Structure formats: C-alpha cells, structure tokens
Amino acid sequence: MCAKYTFYKNPPNRETGETGSLYAKVVSGGKVTTDNLADEIADICSFSSADVKGVIRALSDRLAFHLKYGETVDLDGIGNFSVTLKTPKDITSPKQIRAESISFNNVVYRSSPQLKHQLRAMPLERAVLPKRKEQAEEDRLQRILTKLETNHLISSSDCMCFNQCSRYQALKDLKKLHEQGKLLRLGRGKQKYYVLAENWQKGMRKEGEINEE
Q1: Is the dihedral of CA 69, 75, 80, 81 positive or negative?
Q2: pLDDT digits over 80-111, tens only?
Q3: Collapsing DSSP states into helix, strand and coil, what is residue 3?
Q4: Does the structural domain 34-123 have CATH classification 4.10.520.10?
Q5: Residues 6 or more apart whose Cβ sits within 8 Å of residue 35
Q6: How far out from the chain centre does Cα 17 lie?
Q7: Where do the structural domains in the chain lie, given as residue ranges?
Q8: What is the distance of C-alpha 103 from the center of its chain?
C-alpha cells in the first residue's frame, strides 16, 4: 500500500512571464477518525475501544489546559504543541499595546524527530487521476454570481470548492468580476470576502433611508 501523489503547477512568474514550476502534493486517501484510531489501538493492546477514546478525549482536554497557560506540550514520538498570539498591526512600541488587545492566534505543531524518521521510508506512488475538463471561464464566473444570490458573501476557498479549480484560478476569477464592477471586496489578507456590488449598494441605500426616518 502506497501514499498517492500528483503534481500541481505554481502560478506563472509575473515579472519574467516564465511558466510556473511543478510541485508534488499528496492525494488524500481518506480521513481517519477518532473511532478508527480507537478500534485499531484496541486491537493491539488490552484496552477497549471505549477506553482508548476516553484517553484521547482526556488528552485533548489536558492539551488545551496547558496551552491556555502558555506551556509547550511535548508528546514522545509525536511532537510538541505551542500557541501563537495575535497582535494589532502597525505597533512600534510596547506602550501602544494594551493587554486586552493581544489574543490567541493559532496552535503550532512541530513533529518529533522520531516521527520524521519513520516517515522517511514513506512509500509513494503517482496517482492516476481522471482528467478534469477545464471549465469555461464564463461558466465559472456565472456560477460565482449565482452562488452570491443566496450566500450573500463568498471567499476564494468557496470558489475553489464549487468551481473545482486552483486558488490561483479562483482569485483570478474574483478579481475579474471585481474589476468589472460586479463584486465588491471586503476585508484584507486571509479575511477577504466578496459580495454582489448591486446587493451591497441596495443595502446601503436602505440603511440610509432608515437613518433619515
């Protein structure tokens, strides 16, 4: 049994126009759940599946407890977990920051040397995927507009999902609709969303009428 991989292409270089290079990416072979792991572990030890699930839940609870107080949790053979913080932008002096403006950002996981060593012998095999027909640009753009009639706002990740395209293509499609004046862009960075310009303008006009009353 081998892990499957396929190739994806990076976007072309904007400065030189060179074709984007290829990179390999694992094709998901499915999701392993807590129940799956508990059953597998129960088969190779004296604990029942229910016992194993109880231990996993307790581990999750203790992990969160120690991370909450700024500790690093190191699990033998697995790796260590720590947290990162979110700080307001454009801060140049500690005096500009209040404690309540700093908040939790993310959990960082670093795999252990033992785990990396086990995965170095990872068996790989190129996946044979059915060729995906490139959707016509008009179809992709129309699908975005149709989705926004009911979803109100969407992100590039949403477009990747329902248009079955790369993030590069999704961003390119959204940018085109934005330049055509059909979409408005809200937010910045990873928190960027798009709405129908027409609906947004109607909402603003309606809000203005209510305020006038």
Answers
A1: negative
A2: 999 999 888 777 777 767 766 788 999 999 99
A3: strand
A4: yes
A5: 49, 53
A6: 28
A7: 34-123, 137-210
A8: 20
Question: 88: Cβ–Cβ under 8 A, 6 or more apart, which residues?
Answer: 97, 101, 102
DSSP run (H or E) holding 27: strand 22-27
For residues 56 and 37, the answer to whether their CB atoms sit within 8 Å is: yes
pLDDT greater than 90 at residue 54 = yes
203: amino acid identity, one letter: G
Q: Which amino acid is at 7?
A: F
**Residue indicated by tokens 């016509």:** 136
Res 120: pLDDT: 93
Cα angle, residue 185 at apex, residues 165 and 188 outer, rounded to 5°: 90
Rounded Cα distance between 68 and 85, Å, is 11
Distance between CA 65 and CA 201 in Å, rounded?
Answer: 46
Q: What is the mean pLDDT of residues 53-62?
A: 96
pTM above 0.90, yes or no: no
Residue type, 89: K
CATH code, 137-210 = 1.10.10.10
DSSP state of 94: G
Query: In angstroms, rounded to a whole number, what is the distance separating the alpha carbons of residues 57 and 83?
Result: 20
